[in-house]
Amino acid sequence: MIFVRLYRFFRQHKILLYTLMILSSVVFVFFGTKAKFEEDLLKLLPESENSETALVFGNLKIKDKYFIQVTGAEPDVLVSCVDELMDSILADETGIANNLYRLEPEMALGALDFAMAHVPSFVDTAMYPLFDSAIAHADKTMEDNYNLIMNDETGNIAEMVSTDPLNLRGCLMPDISSGIGFTLIDGHLFSADSTVALIFLSPAFQSFDSDQGGKLAAHIDKCADNLQKAHPGVEVLTHGNVVRAAGNSHFMKHDTFFTVGLSLLIVLIVLCICFKSFNIAWQNLLPLLYGTFFSLACMYWLQGGMSLMALGVGSVVLGVALSYCLHIIIHQRFVGSVEQMLKEESLPVCLGCLTTIGAFLGLLFTQSDLLKDFGLFATFALIGNTLFALVFLPHFLHEEETQRNEKIFKVINKINNYEYDRNPFVIIGLCAIIVIGIIFSGRVQFDNDLKNIGYESDELHKSEKLYSEKNDHGGMQQYYAVIAPTLDEALDANRKLSARLDSLRETGDLIAYTPTVSMLFQSQSEQQRRIDAWNRYWTPEKEAQAMAAVRAAAVRNDLSPDIFEPFKAMLEADYEPGDLYNSGVVPEGLLCTFIEESDGKYLIFNTTLQDPKKMTANCDKVVDAMPEALVVDPFYYTGNMITMIHRDFNTTLLISSIFVLLVLLIWFKDLVIALIAFMPMFLSWYVVEGWMAIFRLPFNLINIVISTFIFGIGVDYSIFVMQGLLAAQRKEGSKLLEYHKVAVFFSAFVLIVVMVSMLCAVHPTIKSIGQSAMIGMLSTIMITYTLQPLVFRWVMKIPFMKRRIEKF
Amino acid sequence: MKKLLTIVIAMLALSASAQQVECHFTESKFIKASGKTVVAEGNLKLSSSDKLEMTYTNPAGDYFIIDGNKMSINLRGKKVVADTEKNATMRTQRNTLMNCITGNWKKVATENNADFSVSEKGANKVVTLTAKKAAARGYSKIVITYRKSDNLPVELVFEEFNGTKTTYKMSNIVKK
Q1: Which domain, by its residues, includes B106?
Q2: pLDDT tens, A733-761?
Q3: A146, A159, A163, A567: best mutation site toward chain B, by most B Cβ within 10 Å?
Q4: pLDDT over 90 for what percent of chain A?
Q5: If contacts are CB pairs under 8 Å, which of residues 144-203 in chain A contact chain B?
Q6: What is the ipTM metric for this complex?
Q7: Closest CA relative to residue B113, chosen from B127, B88, B130
Q8: Disulfide-capable partner of A698 in A445, A553, A646, A803 (CB 3.0 to 4.6 Å)?
Q9: Is the dihedral of CA A465, A470, A474, A477 positive or negative?
Q10: CATH code, domain with B59
Q11: How many domains, in total, are found in chain B?
C-alpha cells in the first residue's frame, strides 16, 4: 500500500514532509491567486467555425451598448438632470468609448454642409420622377415658401428656401427622422412622447468583461443615486448587456461566497460538536484549501484562468472533496490507528476519487469551454484534495483522539443501522419513486435559451420594459448586419439587405424598419452612379425648365426671383463622391449604431422592430441565408449549438457510465457486484430526470453537469457501502459497514447542507443546481441505503454467487 | 541686411496681430427674400489674433465668440459650440471674420474663392471681394472698409448669393 509506505517514510522524515507541504502550498497559492476569472455565458457554447459569427459574438460595441433612461420629471428638468448625470459619469471616463445623449446644433450644421456638397449622393435614382412632380407643383411650393420666409426672423429659413425652392428635400429623406426614432428637446435625446430622456454609452471593453463592466456599472449606479437624491422624483434606469453581465457576475460571486461560506461554517460547527474537537475543523479545511489552490494553479498554468461561472458551479465539488476527508478522519477516529485507517480507506477513497474524476473528465469531451473549465477544475480540485488527505493529513491526525459526542452518534447509528432494506413500505415507496421517475424521465424539459441562465434584476427588467414601451412600441429590437472587408463592399451588401428587410416589413414580418444607413451612407461606386444619374437628369434644358418654373412661381407669389441663385448654383455644381463615414460629421456615439469597424472588417447595422410574440425565426432565417448578412444576436446562433451540446452530453454520460462500470468491474472483479454498485448512480439519474419533469424544473446547460456530480457521489457511496457489505459477508469485520455508513452519513449531510444553501442563492443557475442536485442526492442516498443492500442480500441467496463472493 | 529687415517686419507683424481692439458695433441684416431688416448691436473685443468676442447688448445675452479653434455662438436662443477644425463651414466663417478684422483681406479672398479690388474713399480704404463663381452657400460679395490711419475695419458688408446682406458698422474704436 503506497500511502501506508509514504506515511511511514514521512514519519521518519518530518522536516522533508513539512518542507514539501509548505513549499507546494506556497507555489499553489501564488499561482492560484494569479488565475484570471472571466464571466462569459457564450463560453458555454462551442467555438464557432464561422469567423463572421465569431466576430459578432466578439468585439461588437453595438451589442454592448449601455442604456440609461432618466424619467419622472418635466422635459426641461430631465434635460438638466441628464447633463448633470453625464457630467458626473464622464468625470471618470474609464471604460467609456463614446456616448450619445444629445445632438449638438454643430452636428446639424456640419451635416447640412456635407449634404450640400454631396447632394446627388443622397438622391436615389427612383426619386427623379418625384423631382418632375416637384417642378410641376412649383406654384404650390412657392406659396408655402412665401409663408415660411415671411415668418422668418433670422434669415435661416430664407437661406434654406433659396437653396431648395422646390422642396426637393421632402422627396429625399422623408423618413430619416423617424429612422432615428427619437424626439430632440434642447438637443437632448428623448423618447417620442418626451417623458424619458435617453443616454447611450459604448463601453471601451466587451460586455462580458465582468471586471471592467462591474466597475463601470458601480460608477454609473453611484452617479445615478446621487442624481436621484438631489432630484426627488427623478428615476434613473439602466439596462444592456454590460448591466446584465455585471449583475450576473456580482451575484455569481456573492452566491459562491454565500453558499460555500455558509455551508462550510455549518458543516464545521456540526462536525466539531459531533467529535467534540476543534481539530476536525481545520483537518477538513486544509485539504479543501490545498485542493482548491492546486486546481486554480493548474488552471492558471494550463490556460491562464477559468470561467467565474465554472468556479461557482465548482462549489458543488468542494462538497464531494470534503466527503473524502470525512471518510479518512471519521475512520481514523473509529479505529484509532492511522496506519489501519490508511490500509482500509486509501483504496476506497482512491477508487471513489478515480470514478468521480472519471465522471467529471467526461465533460472534457464536450465542445463547451465553460463545461471543460468546470471538468478540469473539479478534476484538479479532487486530485489535490485527495493527495493532501492521504499524504499530509494523516500526520496531523492524533491516534488517541477518538472522542465523540455519544448522544449524537447514538442518533446517527440509529438512522444508519435501521434496516431500510427490510421495510416493505420504504422499498415499495422507493420503487414507486424510481418507476415514476423512469416513466417521466423522457418528459424533462431542456431550456436551451441561454438568456435564462444569467441573472437579471427587477430593475433591469423594468428598464428594458420601459425602453421597449416608449421607443419600440411594445415591439422588440433586432439588429441585422452585413459584414465585408471594405466599407464600400459592406455598403453595397447593405443595400441588398435593406431591400430584403423592406420587403419583410411590407409582408408584416417586421413591425417597422427604416433603411437609415442606406439613405445616409453610399459606397463610392454607388455615389458615382448617382452623380451620373444626377447629371443625366439635370440637363441644361431641365435646369432651365426648373429655374423658369421657380422664377415664375416666385413672381406670382411676390418673391424676388433673384434670391434663388443658390438653387441654380446647386444644380450647376460639379460633384464628387464623399466619405460621410470618415467626415467627422456624424458623432462617434451615433455613427457606431450604423457602422462599426471591427477586426479589420466593416459591419453595417440595421435596426428592425419585431413582434416579440412571433419574434421570428422567419426574419432571422431569411437574413442568415443571405451571403455577408448576419443576425446580430449571439443567442440566435446558440439554439442548434445547445441542442448539439445536449446530444453531446448524452454521449458523455454514456462514456462516463462505461468508464465507471469498468473501474467497478476491475475493482470488485465481479460483474454482478459491479452492477449492484453501479445501480444507485444509474437509477438516481432517472429519478432526477423524472422528478424534475414532474416539478417542471427544466434542465439547462449548467445544471445538467450536476448529472456528473450525481454520478460521482452515487458511485462513492455505493463503493463504500458495497465494501462494507462484502466485508460483512466475508466475515472480515462487520464494523466496516457501520464505519462507512457513518462517513457516508456525514458526507451526505455535508452535501445536503451545500444543496440547501444553493437553494437560497439569488443567481438562477446556482439555484437550479441546488434543485436538481437535491433530488439527485436524496435519491442516491435512499437507493444506496435500501436497494443496494436488498439486491445484495438477494444475490447472496444464490449459492453460486455466495460461494464466489466469499471466496475472494 | 535683408535678414534683419525680415526679422523686423516679422516682429512688427507680430506686435500688430497681438494688438487689442475694442469697439461698439451695429449689425444690420437685410433679408432680401422677405424685405425685412433685423438689427442688433453690441461690443466687439479683439484680444489677440485668434480671440474675438462679440457681446450683444441688443438682443442682450447673445454672443459670438472665437477662441482659437473654438467658436461659441448664442444667437436668438440657439447655442452652438463648434470646433472649427472639424466643421468646414464654421472654419470658413471664423477665418473670414477674423481675417477681415485683423486686416488680412487677401486671406479672406483665398478662403472664399473671390477676386478683390482695393479703392480709397477719403480717410478709408475699401476692399471689395467678389466671388469668382456662384455657389449654393457662402458670400457673393464682401466689402471691408478700413481706417487708413491704423488699418482697422470701420465697416464690414457680407452679401450672400440669395441677396441677404449683413452690415457691421464699428464705432468708438479703441486700440490698446
Answers
A1: 20-175
A2: 667 777 778 878 888 888 888 778 888 87
A3: A159
A4: 20
A5: 149-150, 152-155, 158-159, 161-163
A6: 0.76
A7: B130
A8: A445
A9: negative
A10: 2.50.20.10
A11: 1
